[in-house]
Amino acid sequence: MKKYWEIVISTTADNRSILPRIVIGFVFLSEGIQKFLFPELVGAGRFEKIGFTNPEFLAAFVATFEIVCGILVLLGLFTRLASIPLLIIMGTALVTTKIPILLNKGFWSMAHESRTDFAMTLLLIYLLIYGAGKLSFDFNIRK
Question: Is-contact 10 18, C-beta < 8 A?
């Protein structure tokens, strides 16, 4: 069990992860809050438009994970663990919203629409690999 705990909080001893953490944390925190503030546009209404069953529950569920994990990433607390649900959210978003664009409008339209999703996914993978960095709770807990 201790071995798994060390993997979760392990991180590099430098500051290179601070910018990816800020980007990931603020974007997901903002998106999660917006799902509650503007449910018809980016919350339950969008989930219903995409075709999900029980969109009200699912939008609130996803928004809660985005807010909680976004805050954890900003703090650098359990960053690797918090990145996993965010990667699942990004993968689901790519499959449910970008694949239909690819099939209906072609590659370039899909490439344009998925640029943010692609960047966020790569930053999450970066955080999974390198961790939160020196300016984080993970680093201080590990010491």
Answer: no
| Per-position b or e across 106-127, b if 16+ CB within 10 A of its CB | eeeebeeebeebeebbebbebb
Measured over the CA atoms of residue 26, residue 28, residue 29 and residue 32, the dihedral's sign is: positive
pLDDT tens figures, 38-86: 999 999 999 999 999 999 999 999 999 999 999 999 999 999 999 999 9
**Cα–Cα nearest to 61, from 72, 52, 51:** 52
| 72 class by beta-carbon count within 10 Å (0-12 exposed, 13-18 middle, 19+ buried) | buried
CA 30 to chain centre: 11
Phi, psi of 67 (to 5 degrees): -70, -50
